[in-house]
TrEMBL record:
Cellular-component GO terms for this entry: condensed chromosome; condensin complex
Coiled coil: none
Highest taxon of source: Eukaryota
Source taxonomy: Eukaryota, Metazoa, Spiralia, Lophotrochozoa, Platyhelminthes
InterPro entries named in the record: ARM-like (IPR011989), ARM-type_fold (IPR016024), CND3 (IPR027165)
GO biological process: mitotic chromosome condensation
The protein's name: Condensin complex subunit 1
Amino acid sequence: TNREDFWQALVECANYGLTSSPKLPAGTAIIDLLAKMALLQLSDSNESNATASTVASVAGTASTSAASASVTVKDEILDGPDLDDPDCLAGRLISYCTELSCAADKAVRMRCVQLIYKILSALPVKVQISDDTFKRIQECLLERAWDVCGPVRAESLRALNRLQNPSRRDCPVISLMDHVARFDPSAEVRRTALQSIAFTNKSIPTIVSRTRDIDDSVRKAAYDKLTDRANCFSRLDIQCR
């Protein structure tokens, strides 16, 4: 089909970016272009839904039969774009990157996580995602957070930022970031963990402890994080204060 032909052609082009060195500007430009294409499609979908919603609401006042039809249409279009839709470019790119994220080449792992991050960080709030897809993305990024390559670990933490659930006491993402912020040997990774981790009763003592990190950039990140939430000190015990 035309859709599959387009996808195969896109993958062929995407592979040039996904296999490029992280230091190569042309590779970064390809990754940025892929992310913008995916997000533009989602944006167009949202605008179409909003327009259809307005039309349906107006039509609903015309007659009883039209009103019934408009309610049905409105109920359907209230939902945001679905990442599991075969026509959703963002969902297909994320799935493709999760499959390649275990590649032997660290450059491929880095680029895959980078593209996932760029898409996830700009996804609309109302986007739909199934539990299976969410779990697959989360497991992929959690695995890359233990990668032997520091920049890959750091990029995975950035991508995990939107997958945190502060209301969940045992959130695996927050637990991972808490551990990494304390013990990762790379200052870049510890700093990224601090910048990405959500404020919870569990994470605040960790953030405070990083104000005594051996690396000045990590200490600065910890102070910047605390400055953004000055009221967080009320959650600390006397010893931490």
